[in-house]
Fold each of these.
Amino acid sequence: MTRKAKKAGRFALLLSLLLCLSACSTAPQEPPAPEEKLISVGFSQVGTESDWRVANTASMESALSAENGYRLDLRYAQQKQEQQIVDLYKFINQGVDYIVLAPTTERGWETILSRVRDSGIPVIIVDRMIEIEDESLFTCWVGSDFRQEGKTAVEWMEKTFADQPLNIIHLQGNIGSSAQIGRTEGLDEGLKAHDNWTLAFRQSGDFTQAKGQELVEEVIEKGLLDRSGNTINVIYSENDNMSYGAIDALKKAGLTPGKDVYIISFDAASTALRLVLKGEIAYDVECNPLHGPRVKNLIEQLKEGKTPPKYTYVEETAFSQDNLTEELISTRGY
Ligand code: AHR
């Protein structure tokens, strides 16, 4: 390289260094990281016990996403209220903008919710309810009418089985949850109103498939299904996952669901609705889990300084072979 070329090279290097320095000193302030503008939401979720719960979590995650302007701190409680209380304390310490609580059980929320109220964080209750005297301890609630769900199931049993005697196996959800309380109440009213309905078995299967199967295996082993041929055997299962377990137990014992035993289920998840089409589940009462957009809407109202309704009940329906098609199942969101 000639001396002239070397000199030109050094000059170009110096020039670009100067340009870079001046650019750095006059560069505008970086905008704040988008993270800082997100609305923070602490969500205490019951657990992962059922298809319903998985669909509910997915709905919340997609509505309260970063793209929609939210930072969601999702915590699972494995169906334990103690864990939910710990998580709520964590949300207070973090200073989240909103707390969303899907309560495991109805009772025992006074102390922790008083602490949340003192912190000034609004609380939205979702899915199940809480039983509390001082309603100012939460901002609003959105979820299902579980008593109505139980009533719907019993009305269908009355219409379908007319005056025939029933032998009922009752698989309950986790005791003390609104879903269990409402659906059990529905059945209890039916039992009271019909002398020829017998409650042969009642136990909690905690809304899980494994426990549903275990319980029905126990029922079969103990000979609690009526084999006289004069009585209709009914499994009243308080959610779809316990119904899947019940079907497995029946088939293992050589029994045919829909023929030897009729299953009444709750949730209406797509897997269960396909079992309705196959005749293995006789009737499935909907419990709608798609609360994400509903909760987002409530938060938006609160952000705008509005007062949303204290209670919002979701409209729900029920399915048998009479009103169900594969097309309908595929258009539903879960
Ligand atoms: O609270 C809703 C209930 O909880 C659903 O019926 C059940 O599947 C879930 O675990």
Amino acid sequence: MNTLPEKDFTNPRAQHGFVGRTCSIVSVGSYVPEKIVTNADLERLVDTSDEWITSRTGIRERRVAAADEFTSDLGAKAASRALEKVGISGEQVQLIIVATITPDMTFPSTAALIQQKIGAVNAAAFDIEAACSGFIYALEIGQQFIMSRTYETVLVIGAEKLSSIINWKDRNTCVLFGDGAGAAVLQYRPGSHGLLTACMGADGSKADLLNMPGGGSRCPATVDSVNAGLHFLRMEGKETFKNAINAMNAAAHEALARCNLDIAQIKCVIPHQANRRIIDAVGERLGVRQDQVFVNLDRYGNTSAASVAIALDEAVDQGIIQRGDLVLLLVFGAGLTWGAAVIEW
Ligand code: COA
């Protein structure tokens, strides 16, 4: 019978009388499309400059998927890489959760399409939508199925083809986003903590700050809605900026407090990769050294639900995170939504 590992003093779930299993991230993988769009390329599309984009956001380039490459393709490639690394076959996966705001289509779920692409014939599959916070939301949901012994192997994926909802004539938004996918395989591993805690939050009163008005039941696609540009992502940048800093800072404090941890004990902070100035402001408020914070947005821009998943994979791949290290993931996105997760890697 599975029992909780000995080191439960750091496990907030155990402190609150939790008796289920712990959940480990046993593997991660990521995929970004081949095509690179640089700031210089965008200078040819809109009235902007490499200097403006770099100084205001830290982004130098982003990836853009091919016309025949969809969110499910990106997600399937990231998932296959994560599974291959630990020698787990598609057939062994019992649940696939995909976080995305750019599903291949409104229905069926992108998770179902990925299930077919990776041969996960035994898996249940569904999507969740928490915008850029989606990966932590999906991790927390996936973890519940491991802890409750419902499933042995859960695949969590953040995947986006944001280029499909970007108005490439709007300099306020088109410079910020990119395409990509990241995946994590969740299992119970005796003697390993994995996810120590994940906090999630939302504030629907600020839904207007960042959204895509068209395409849903409120505003189905019509010639008029397309002409009005309602099927593009729209954002109030300044307000979003302020809310992102406050929400990620608060979520970080809540997650650390739940685990009785001090920020100094965190080896690596992986924040949502939206804007270098947001990341620096959050880092400053938390009192972390710059070398504690993982940043790759210069190469990918904001990939929404894929953002921290890709960053986690790269940090592990580069040896920045070793088994046993404590990692803090921080996310923020439309909704508004936010979240933080502490992982013992
Ligand atoms: N190139 C050149 N100028 C641009 C530009 C671009 N790509 N985008 C906007 N500008 C202009 C604006 O039109 C504005 O011009 P104006 O003063 O003549 O009206 C000027 O730059 C300043 O805009 P401002 O909004 O003050 O810039 P900012 O310092 O707030 O930076 C963002 C803009 C979008 C980079 C910033 O607000 C931001 O990052 N917000 C959060 C975005 C985000 O992370 N969203 C996703 C969350 S998950």
